[in-house]
Design goal:
Elements: H1 2-5, E1 15-22, E2 29-30, E3 38-41, H2 45-55, E4 59-65, H3 82-94, E5 99-104, H4 126-143, E6 147-150, H5 157-167, E7 174-181, H6 188-193, H7 213-224, E8 229-233, H8 239-248, E9 253-257, H9 259-270, H10 276-290, E10 294-297, H11 300-308
Parallel strand pairs: 1-3, 1-4, 1-10, 4-5, 5-6, 6-7, 7-8, 8-9, 9-10
Antiparallel strand pairs: 2-3
The structure holds ligand PBG.
Ligand PBG binds near residues 103, 107 and 259.
Length: about 300
């Protein structure tokens, strides 16, 4: 009876796995603040993508961790950059059996750790960054990404990327826009995962946790600029935003259960204070109930396994 009347169901196809690929390592390297999550070597990423196909999830979102960084984030646009190489390997492995997604943002590649390039006064230069995002998206699509995911929260990023992709004959590349991305403390473990060099914070370009109206404006702008899907991030502390976005958006809405959300459940479960499986599945179900059609989660492979063996 509970199955018959359940209003929300979680399915492996709802899930997307974020994965880190690090340059210059030969073995998977654990991420201390995200127990169970690793940085993959370039040679290991195809196997991870194959595991995602076998688990029946819908996609993999790749993040690159380069060995050298510079002020302009050159590694992001170069075809030999770690992320673009990883995209190539993954796409060769999975073809169209899995959505291959790329984080389209400079923070992993810049020595100052910001999501964009800086002006002479050390502030993030929005419009100069857009030109680099356009080149980055083209490089990612050429390397094999089905989906690019601009996560840097620059104004106009979706339009700039759409125009660039179309101009390069890449009309079929999908844009998953981080429409409402908050300046959140829950990204802490991610910054270890990508060995971020950021000093300070991203409050000049990410959303204020106090606000929802400006997030809905960002959502409208991204859709008007050509976003194919929009995302709210983080998920669990922002379920009201997920719900409002789902009501309002004319494209599918995704939510990102971020590193700190994963770490909280993983840490409490490791202490025996919480049931890892039950807590993870409940959190994912709640994100769906709020209105997300897709969920990016570090639990994706595990959750798919749990769902296959209830
Ligand atoms: C930026 C980006 C971040 C995350 C995804 N893309 C970090 C940030 O804004 O500092 C965070 C993801 C997570 O915490 O799991 N490229």
């Amino acid at each position: 009876m509970r199955g018959l009347v359940a209003q929300t169901r979680l399915h492996p196809q709802d899930l997307i796995l974020p994965a880190f690929v690090a340059e210059g390592i030969t073995q998977a390297r654990p991420i201390t603040s995200m127990p169970g999550v690793v940085q993959h070597p370039l040679d290991g990423v195809a196997a991870q993508a194959r595991a995602a196909v076998d688990a029946g999830i819908s996609g993999i979102m790749l993040f690159g961790v380069p060995t050298t960084k510079d002020a302009r984030g050159t590694g992001a646009t170069s075809p030999s950059g770690i992320l673009n190489q990883a995209l190539e390997r993954v796409r060769a492995e999975v073809g169209d059996d899995l959505l291959v997604m790329a984080d389209t943002c400079l923070d992993e590649f810049t020595d100052h750790g910001h999501c964009g390039v800086l002006d002479s006064r050390g502030r993030v230069d929005n419009d100069a960054t857009l030109e680099i995002y356009a080149d980055m998206a083209i490089a990612q699509a050429r390397a094999g990404a089905h989906v690019v995911g601009p996560s840097g929260m620059m104004d106009g990023q979706v339009a700039a990327i759409r125009t660039a992709l179309d101009g390069a004959g890449l009309q079929e590349t999908v844009i998953l826009a981080y429409a409402a991305k908050y300046a959140s403390a829950f990204y802490g473990p991610f910054r270890e995962a990508v060995q971020s060099s950021l000093q300070g914070d991203r409050r000049t370009y990410q959303q204020d946790p106090a606000n929802i109206t400006e997030s809905l404006r960002e959502l409208d702008l991204d859709i008007a600029q050509g976003a194919d899907l929009v995302m709210v991030k983080p998920a669990m502390s922002y379920l009201d935003v997920v719900a409002a976005a789902a009501q309002r958006a004319t494209v599918p809405v995704a939510a990102y259960q971020v590193s700190g959300e994963y770490a909280m459940i993983a840490a409490a479960a490791a202490q025996g204070w919480i049931d890892r499986r039950a807590a993870a599945l409940e959190s994912l179900l709640s994100i769906k109930r709020a209105g997300a059609q897709a969920v990016l989660t570090y639990f994706a492979l595990e959750a798919a396994e749990w769902l296959a063996h209830p």
